[in-house]
Design goal:
The complex is a heterodimer. By secondary structure, chain A is α/β, with parallel strands linked by helices. In chain A, 48% of the residues lie in helices and 16% in strands. In chain A, the strands form two sheets. Chain A has a seven-stranded parallel sheet, sandwiched between helices. In chain A, strands 7-8 form a two-stranded parallel ribbon. In chain A, strand 2, helix 2 and strand 3 form a beta-alpha-beta unit. In chain A, helix 1 crosses helix 7 and helix 5 packs parallel to helix 6. By secondary structure, chain B is an alpha+beta fold. Chain B has a domain of 226 residues: 3-Layer(aba) Sandwich (Vanillyl-alcohol Oxidase, Chain A, domain 3). Chain B has 13 helices and 22 strands. In chain B, the strands form six sheets. An eight-stranded antiparallel sheet of chain B has the order 17-13-15-14-20-21-19-22. A five-stranded antiparallel sheet of chain B has the order 6-7-11-9-10. The interface between A and B is medium-sized, with 15 and 17 residues. The structure holds flavin-adenine dinucleotide. The site of flavin-adenine dinucleotide (FAD) has 33 residues of chain B, from strand 4, helix 2 and strand 11.
Amino acid sequence: MKSALILGASSDIANACSELLARQGYHLTLAARREGALRTLKSDLEIRFKVSVSTQVFDALDFDSHRSFYQGLSNSPDVVICAFGILGNQEQAEKDWEQCKEILDANFTGAVSILNIVANDMASKGSGTIIGISSVAGERGRMSNYVYGSAKAGFTTYLSGLRNRLHKKGVNVLTVKPGFVQTKMTENLPLPKPLTAQPEQVAKAILKAAKKGKSEIYILGIWRWIMLIIRNIPEFIFKKLSL
Amino acid sequence: MKIANWSNYPIVDSQISSYTDSGKLPFSEAFITRGNGRCYGDSSLNNQIASMLSYNKALEFDIQNGVFTCQAGMTLDRVLEIIVPNGWFLPVTPGTKFISVGGAVASNVHGKNHHYDGCFNDHVVSLDLLTASGEIVTCSSEENVELFETTSGGMGLTGMILQVTFRLKKIESSFIDQRSIKAKNLDELVDLFRENENATYSVSWIDCLQTGKSKGRGLILLGEHARIDQLNTKQGKNPLKLHQASKVTFPLNAPPNSTNKITVKAFNTAYYGKQLSKEQHSIIHYDPFFYPLDAILKWNRIYGKKGFLQYQFVIPFGQSNEGMQRVLDKIREYGHASPLVVLKLFGKQDDFISFPMEGFTLALDFPIRRGLFEFLDALDKMILDLGGRHYLTKDARMAKETFFKGYPNAEEFVRRIKKYNPNYLFSSLQSERLGLTQKTQE
Ligand SMILES: Cc1cc2nc3c(=O)[nH]c(=O)nc-3n(C[C@H](O)[C@H](O)[C@H](O)COP(=O)(O)OP(=O)(O)OC[C@H]3O[C@@H](n4cnc5c(N)ncnc54)[C@H](O)[C@@H]3O)c2cc1C
């Protein structure tokens, strides 16, 4: 039986991925910070899909714990989805280093720390898939969220380097840039419908791309064009915009 | 964000917060809990809303004994997806599967089996409520009984229902053994209900535009869960078949007046005329039997942008025939009724604040147009005079007096709301209109 490890399992995107993987018969290990949330996710998947699900508490910010966390897993996963991260508050991050550092660590350093371990394991096995949920926000710094954006930029770059390294070892690395997604975090934002994906749609696209061995995907094709434009606005104009 | 419930009226600007699993109250000032917004009016609307839809996980399923526990935001279609393949069904279901379990409890919903199985909460084992003090309290018919009673049909005014444990109904197949019988007029229809009191499910559809001898002509639908040996070969291959996702969505911007008298009449004739024989017998899936309207997503758009009002009331037996006749006459006179008029029998129910009582209940839609509100005010009076009352979960406009006259425990309900919800933290536009809570801040 193939197995998957979901890091940051309580996010809506991660949960939609878990459902699809459970349906496809994967053995799942869910990892997240809060034990209560893990218990609920486990019971839901077990009742709905009649599968057995493992859970493991995981704190992305507690770097030192990552090695023992990974060694403690009952089996070495074939697929790892790295879905944790926080949006944080840009304004506070500008004033408060602790806040700023938390955004950087939760979205970048923590991911690097755990994925280094995963990568070495998969490289030695000579197979596996690593899926990183990054963001379109990492493609260009904007005043409204550049701390988060720069952490995601770092994550995207890390993933592309990892892909380059692991390709020869039979391990695929997929970078996902979802754009707007309708989740509990964005419920109150008036997101433009044509640009907004549903978590189930995101999960489907991710697993399809992983199966095909793709390197990088946007969920809705239109985001590729939007980001192409955003990347290509000359800096002397871009700096005057309020984005 | 602008938001409305199923009848598209009223539309309010609201701050929405999704309840996740924090165990904490999402707002410190007046808000109302919202499930899937399938109540028709303003019961789950206010300027601040806690949405339960993301709080929707299955927590426990005792397959042997048919007991199910889930978070309150899980919708009934998802519950069915879990329980039906295991040979269980909902103990009570309303006419749509797109409501949340929390909404089922808060409105204490009824189904086509009310005369037989009572309301949804008659099957609830226990529930967890996040109360105004921020505490989570477990209540049931044995524990914190008063709070349970008041939450049942209490329209979200005692707290946020977080999770619910309820008993299921055992089924051999997911098909329904259905009989449909034509009735020439209201008297015959009522007789048919009486004769078939032993049927597990019964509901009727009436054509309220007919006059003279066919006044109140209609169809009564009776149903039992089908046994395996009643299924045909095709059905027998998958006896616990699930409903399919709906594929048809009603187009945006219905033509204005698409429900005027002529189309309504045509619709009714087609429906009634389709069945040629007096009685028909068939084995059909639960989806078309319980949820015919779910086949078309967003069917509420048929009434156009202005929206509509749904009107449901109950009249106690004794008065029923004659009273209902007069009400129907009045509606016919008014002329702008809906194609959908549903009539059904309620059995005994003497809950603290729930809607059903022994008698007949009638539900119909009215597209919003000038004069409607005045017309309904007059209709309210007729129904109160007959000893009847109105269903809160369908309401968007009734006057305070109408509620207080119709519900014998109204005063006590107000007292208990004050007890459990002292600062009116849980408060909807409806509860403010009906004087159940008071607006505390702007
Ligand atoms: C096509 C159609 C057919 C219907 N048929 C029937 C029928 O046959 N019988 C029947 O009884 N009803 C029927 N209804 C009405 C419907 O079942 C109720 O309005 C139900 O309460 C809607 O649930 P919801 O999850 O959509 O909740 P909402 O509509 O969002 O809210 C309804 C009420 O429940 C409260 N509430 C919701 N969730 C919670 C929670 N977690 N904690 C506390 N309070 C909460 C809200 O505050 C509000 O007062 C029908 C509705 C439609 C659209």
